[in-house]
Amino acid sequence: MRLIIIIIKKEIMKRIYDFRFIIFITTSIILAAFLSFLFSQRYKWEIQNINQINKQVHENMNLESMYVILPPNSFSFFDASEENFFKRIRLEPNIIFYSEPFKQNDQTFTIKHDQFDLMFIIIYVFSFFSIILVYDSIAGEKEKGVLKLIMSNSVSRIQYILGSILGNLFIILTALLIMLLICFLIVNLISPYIQFQSQDWMKILITTFSSCLFIGFIVLISLLGSVLFKKSSIALIFNLLIWMLIVVAIPIIINIISEYLRPIPSIRDLQSELRSAEIRKFESTGLDGMKILNILKNKKLSSLEKKKCFLELQSETYKKNILAIEEYSITSAQILEDYINRLISQTEFSRKIGLFCPPLAFKYSVQAILPSGYERQKIFIDSTKKYFLSFNEAITKLRNQHQQEANLTQGFTELTDNGIKYRLYNIEDISFKNVKFDKNKIPEFSMIVPSLNTLLNNAIPRWGSLLIYIIIIISLIYYIFVQYDVR
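and the corresponding structure tokens:
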């Protein structure tokens, strides 16, 4: 045990006096601190903006529709990936209208790009620096002949490898903890809108554990390259290639696989479907020209009977138009809901195979705990579905109470037959938009707050994936080092 502690101290002192470590920790802390400050200021703006939007939503609330808004996430400084999601959902009587994906471009509405947040710094910047710092931990001692000297002083291989692993993990994870602590303190102290409660600090603690697991895995990968090769330069090239494969290439491959196996339509296709539904509505509404012509040509009918027939046709057309408009609304909402469901299916599939990729396993574990990104989007959708039940009941009751105050949108057609003029009204829609009502009777929207146990259950499979990789890498390091001939 004493020898292991000596080796741990040796590794720690070697790193502390290494100029790379000074650059590494200074750059990481400055980047993370600046980012935390930036996101704190942005969160302040988002809170002010959302308050203004909610005020406008309340002022513009009517019996036709209303919006529910996704509130800002106080943990967006750690994971801002939900910026790629939609942030509002429109509700109409009997319809949830997922309207936000409707963009004027040909992009599919998925998460493909990492935001520049604290998670980005950990996955890309911090892990890269860890590789650069650790790659020569064992290979450098092989190259200089130091390892042969250490092995000749009654130090067993398991003691040496265990001391090297623990020493490197201690110094790198300590730097990570310092960086995270500074970030959390900056966010909590600077922003008046972010005051972490006890449960928030528990989430931060668990998220820190996830970060340590991932960076620990990266350090072990770098040690594996250091054990494999005798020359530091080859170990560095190997480690950088492995880092690029794990951190950059595999996530892209997983995205490509999920898009191929779980395809979703482009926004252009979505717009085309919605336009087709609108054309069908247009074709289904309006007066039937053939029926009008048959009434006019029927010489057996007197002018009064024709007028009666036209009134019946007008009433029939009104009912048909209202049904066509309702069908259009339902069809449009269904098209968008199908799109959202296919998007969810693709994302869920991507997250399942993402368990085989350590950076994605880390990212998804953080999103499960905070919650953020896709996990928070799911909570938003579930909260909206739950709220919709009470909203629909309230708005249906209010519409029934104010039926007589609704505005009719109508056009008319004038016909002349034997000098007698007939006017046929074509009622196209009925609108409750300008009806005055008690807005307090519409319930307020609120997000579901999942328990910490629920969040932990979502994160545990991702931790399990990272721990399995860590155990495999440690086993490989030990096996390769045992086979190494120090002579």
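(Above: one complete record from the training split.) The chain has a mean pLDDT of 84.
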